[in-house]
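Re: that backbone. C-alpha cells:
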C-alpha cells in the first residue's frame, strides 16, 4: 500500500490550511518554513536557496487516523516530515501478533524510510497512523538533493538515525533480558507519565500489540497485578495504584 493511494495531498498554496491555519494568507514557502522551524529547530540555520526551492515543490499530506501507510515490501518513495500526529512503526508475525518498534512524532524521522530511500529498498515493517497526521513530503530525488547540498539537514538526519538505533537497541535489551511482567508494568508507568494520569484508557489487546504477546498472557499478568493491589481494572480502563 502506498501513502499516495490513501491520503489527501495538497500543493502548499495560500488557500490551504494547516490545523492551526498557519498557512492562511501567507507566502506558502514562508509559512511552511515557520511551521518546520518550530517543530524542527535544527532547520533554522539552513539558508541554502535550494532548500527553500525544494519546500516550494513539496506536498502537504493529510492522512486519516488508523491508516496503514506502509507495509513490507512496499518501496519507499517519499521522505516525510510530520507536522502533526503520530505514526506507529511495528512488526507483525504470521500469527498476527504485533510488536512496536517505535513511534514517529513531529520532529522525528523514520529510519526505515530513510533506509528505503537511500538504498531503494522496500519498507521493512508496518506503519500506521495513530491519529490524523499532517506531513510535508519530499520525493526521493528531493531528499537526496537535500542530503547532498545541506550540511545541517544531513547532520540532522544522521543524528536521528543514531538516536533511533540507540532506542531500538535498548528495546532489544529490554525484550531479551527483562520479564514480560516487568516490561508491562514499566509500560503502564510510562503511559501514566506521558498522559499525566493514573487512569489509562486501553484494552488488553492494545497492550498485547504493544509488547508482542497475546491478549490472554496480558490478561493473566494484569490479574496478578490486581491481586497485588497495583491496579484496578474496569472494562477498557486500568487504574494504577502504585
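Recovered sequence:
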Amino acid at each position: 500500500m502506498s501513502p499516495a493511494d490513501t491520503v489527501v495531498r495538497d500543493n502548499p498554496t495560500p488557500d490551504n490550511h494547516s490545523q492551526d491555519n498557519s498557512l492562511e494568507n501567507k507566502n506558502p514557502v514562508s509559512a511552511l518554513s515557520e511551521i518546520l522551524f518550530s517543530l524542527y529547530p535544527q532547520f533554522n540555520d539552513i539558508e541554502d536557496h535550494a532548500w527553500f526551492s525544494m519546500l516550494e515543490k513539496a506536498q502537504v499530506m493529510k492522512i486519516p487516523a488508523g491508516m496503514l501507510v506502509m507495509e513490507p515490501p512496499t518501496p519507499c518513495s517519499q521522505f516525510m516530515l510530520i507536522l502533526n500526529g503520530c505514526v506507529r512503526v511495528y512488526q507483525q508475525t504470521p500469527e498476527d501478533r504485533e510488536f512496536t518498534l517505535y513511534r514517529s512524532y513531529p520532529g522525528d524521522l523514520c529510519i526505515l524510510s530513510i533506509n528505503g530511500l537511500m538504498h531503494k529498498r522496500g519498507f521493512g515493517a508496518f506503519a500506521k497512523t495513530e491519529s490524523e497526521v499532517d506531513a510535508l513530503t519530499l520525493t526521493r530525488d528531493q531528499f537526496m538533493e537535500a542530503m547532498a547540498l545541506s550540511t545541517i539537514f544531513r547532520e540532522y538526519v544522521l543524528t536521528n538515525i543514531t538516536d533511533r538505533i540507540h532506542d531500538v537497541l535498548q528495546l532489544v535489551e529490554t525484550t531479551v533480558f527483562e520479564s514480560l511482567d516487568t516490561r508491562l508494568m514499566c509500560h503502564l508507568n510510562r503511559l501514566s507519565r506521558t498522559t499525566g494520569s493514573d487512569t489509562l484508557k486501553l484494552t488488553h489487546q492494545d497492550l498485547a500489540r504493544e509488547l508482542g504477546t497475546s491478549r490472554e498472557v496480558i490478561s493473566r499478568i494484569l490479574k496478578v497485578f490486581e491481586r497485588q493491589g497495583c491496579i484496578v481494572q474496569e472494562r477498557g480502563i486500568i487504574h494504577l495504584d502504585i
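The domain at 3-175 is CATH 2.60.120.10 (Jelly Rolls). The chain has two domains: 3-175, 179-240.
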